[in-house]
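Justification of computing resources. Each target in the renewal requires a structure prediction run like the one illustrated here; the chain below, 228 residues long, is used simply to show the kind of job we budget for.
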Amino acid sequence: MQIDILTLFPEMFEGPFSQSILKRAKEKGIVQIFLHNIRDYASGKHKNVDDYAFGGGAGMVMMIEPVAKCIEKLKEKTVYDEIIYMSPDGELLSQKVANRISVMKNIILLCGHYKGVDERIREHLITREISIGDYVLSGGELAAAVLTDAVVRLMPGVLNDETSALSDSFQDDLISPPVYTRPAEFRGWKVPDVLLSGNEKEIVKWKHEQSLERTRQRRPGLMDDAGF
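Resulting structure tokens:
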């Protein structure tokens, strides 16, 4: 997969993209991530990328020209499955959304800033808008990093145990069951006996029951949506 990220602050990605799973995926050549500074496509001596909004109102708006130039330049060389704008009023990121994007070949992620991007970009160049939650961040960079991580970890060859992602929370519309490791007893706190029994059938049954109960308690809406 190729992921092209359009941003005013490419340095913000240095930390999350140089560690752990994303670092491993890049080193294996499973994913290529390219950062594009929108300011490089701005015109004029000062390379302005923002301006006041027509009609007034507080805050600045990302200008149409540099964003459009950047997207169009990339499209000259690559065919993209999606051009995604990270926006608080977009489609809510879910495991199902991450699953669908993970099988795509090429995507663009546009990171907004200030009061957002000129609406004409959204109308004419963006194919999808995604939000990571009902709140507002200072820019789309953190949201783009979250989406990238959620998608890349699902790709074959990224995780050492490829079945691990299949047992994550939300893959089957349920929250994952509790997990334990050694020692079996710590300060009198014990691991459930069933997990030490070696009875695979009972362990699977226990895990499913725990997932159902946790979902009922913590995220009952998931069960309603899935028809449980």
